[in-house]
Amino acid sequence: MNYCEQCRRSSAQLQTLGAALFDGLQGEPVGDVLLNAVLARLDDAPPLSYANASEWAAGRTPAILQRLMNGDFTDLVWKKITSTLRISYLKTGDPNYEFALYHIKAGGRIPEHTHRGSEMTLVLEGGFSDADGSYDQGDFLLRQPSDVHAPTAVQSEDCICLAVLDAPLKFTGWKYRWMNPFLQLRAG
């Protein structure tokens, strides 16, 4: 929702629809104690806020990602994988998923690979393309084990993505296939 204006519009439309459905229901009497307890909880709820694309472009990282990063992209420990790809693993405490930031240099490419499990990717900065399409800031992708691709960053700027995996990647090209036995899920 932070990066997707269309998603926020759709959510607002669904909320309006839900409100209209509730509006048509017959009310039930509620005791004063229960009513006051519910109203008190509503008053204590924190306000909802969504970062918009212009806030992101101005360098404002969404709060959930800020908590995982403990700073900004320059403060992270980056591991060089290839001449154009660096990865920073984020600690989440979840033993089943690897959360990582992928930094692809402008025009750089992640070697062709498939997935041993699911990969969820959110483009945070820049953009990339593969055989299936082009993806820009705010785009979300879901890859399955049968998907093979080689993401290439746009020429004009570096690309940073948040990737969540439940199994390691599997390189398919001859140049990087030797790395497969060493690839492990870095969950937690």
What does this structure look like?
Strand 1 (79-80) and strand 2 form a beta hairpin. The protein has helices at 5-23, 32-44, 53-57, 63-69, and strands at residues 79-80, 85-90, 98-104, 113-115, 119-125, 127-130, 133-136, 140-143, 152-153, 159-165, 169-171. The protein folds into 2 domains: 5-50, no CATH class; 62-182, Jelly Rolls, CATH 2.60.120.10. It is α+β, with helices and mostly antiparallel strands. It has a 6-stranded antiparallel β-sheet with strand order 1-2-3-10-5-8, with no helix packed on it.
What string gives the helices and strands in order?
HHHHEEEEEEEEEEE
**Alpha-beta classification:** alpha+beta
Helix content: 10-25%
User: What average pLDDT do the residues reach?
Assistant: 83
Task: Give a quick summary of the entry.
This protein is an alpha+beta fold.
Entry keywords:
Jelly Rolls; 26% strand; single chain; alpha+beta; 188 residues; 3-stranded antiparallel sheet; 6-stranded antiparallel sheet
Question: Helices, strands, pairings?
Answer:
Layout: H1 5-23, H2 32-44, H3 53-57, H4 63-69, E1 79-80, E2 85-90, E3 98-104, E4 113-115, E5 119-125, E6 127-130, E7 133-136, E8 140-143, E9 152-153, E10 159-165, E11 169-171
Antiparallel strand pairs: 1-2, 2-3, 3-10, 4-11, 5-8, 5-10, 6-7, 6-9
